[in-house]
Structures are given as structure tokens and as C-alpha cells.
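Curious: why these numbers?
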Amino acid sequence: MEPFLSVFDSSPDGGRGLARDMPVRWALEEAGRPYQVRRLSFAALKEPEHLARQPFGQIPAYEEDGLVLFESGAIVLHVAEGCPTLLPTDRAARARAITWVFAAVNTVEPPVWDYDMAGFFDRGRPWQHERAAVLEAALRTRLGQLAQHLGDAEWLEGTFTAGDLMMICVLRRIEDAPLMADYPALAAYIRRGEARPAFQRAFAAQRALLDAKA
């Protein structure tokens, strides 16, 4: 039975592929696993039926043979089980890949999200520019640390893993930000991820939601 993935009814980001179902779609494509989608309106996200699947009224939710999961990182790790492309069979390499999944969502994503959303939520506030400088400094610290670890390598741990998948999805939110010009290694890292056929398939599937509404 193909798993079901609950997603937004239409692309909320103008087709940029930034919604939280994107890493799950990408993981499913890397694993070669077909899936079906359940398209939900914003109102439907708060209905009891969806809240039974996702208690916080968000996307994605994942259903497979009676198993119901939420949180994109957790779903990606579940999909990655049995897929050596995403989780290596070597015990140590597997542990490192899982570590990078957590690093993406716990260490890198918070400053990325704060920086990206500040222009929207803080616009016109008296503290806007001062706070923006603080958020940019925090983000630059994390990007610098990540770039230093990556160095000249293609991927975080030698070969592509679920850790790269999650990290690239996080970084894509700011890939067009002017400050990324100061981190060419990370910009190239994002492009390598986006060039993967599985990413292209996942992106096209999410983009189709926007095209269907046009």
C-alpha cells in the first residue's frame, strides 16, 4: 500500500518548494517509493480529522499501513530506513547521517528561519534594523561553521545522505539572500542537491499544486 502524505492544497510559497512536505517528497523519491497526497486547505488543517494525524495542525502528516507520523525530519528518517542512499549501512556512517538531520532542524534552521521571516514580521517596527543585524550575525555564525566543516567536499560526510537532504532543504530558504554570496561553498552545495534527479521530481510534484490552481 502506498503511503499518504498530507500537504497544502496549493503551494503557499509561489512554487519555490519550501513547504515542509518537500524533504519528505525528496526522501521518497530518493528511496524510489511511490506515494499519494492528501491535499488540505488551511481551514482543513485545524479540523479534527487532520489533528488526529498531526496534533499541531501543520503539514506534513504521513500514513503508512496504520502508522501515522508527523514532523518532516522524523518522516525522512523513517523513509530512509532500508535506503542506503539516505542512511548508510555502516553503523558509524549511519549515526553521522542521523546527526546531520538533527543538526539541520535544531541548529541551522532556527537562525535561518528567524532571519528569513524577520523582514515580514518586523517590518516598520522601531527595532527592525537593530534586530535584523543581530539575526544576521547569528546566521552568519552558523553558516560559517557549516561552510568550514563542508570545506571542498561535495557532501557533509563524503557521500550524500539524509543529513544532506535535510540541510539543503533548510538552506534553500535563504539561497537567494544577498549574504549567501559570502558562502560560495554552501551555494554550490545547495545547487548540487537541487541537481539530483530525485529532488527534481519532488520539486515538480510540489510545483504542480501551484500550477493546478492557476
User: Anything to note?
Assistant: The helical segments are 21-30, 48-51, 72-80, 91-121, 128-150, 162-171, 184-195, 197-213. The first helix runs from residue 21 to 30.
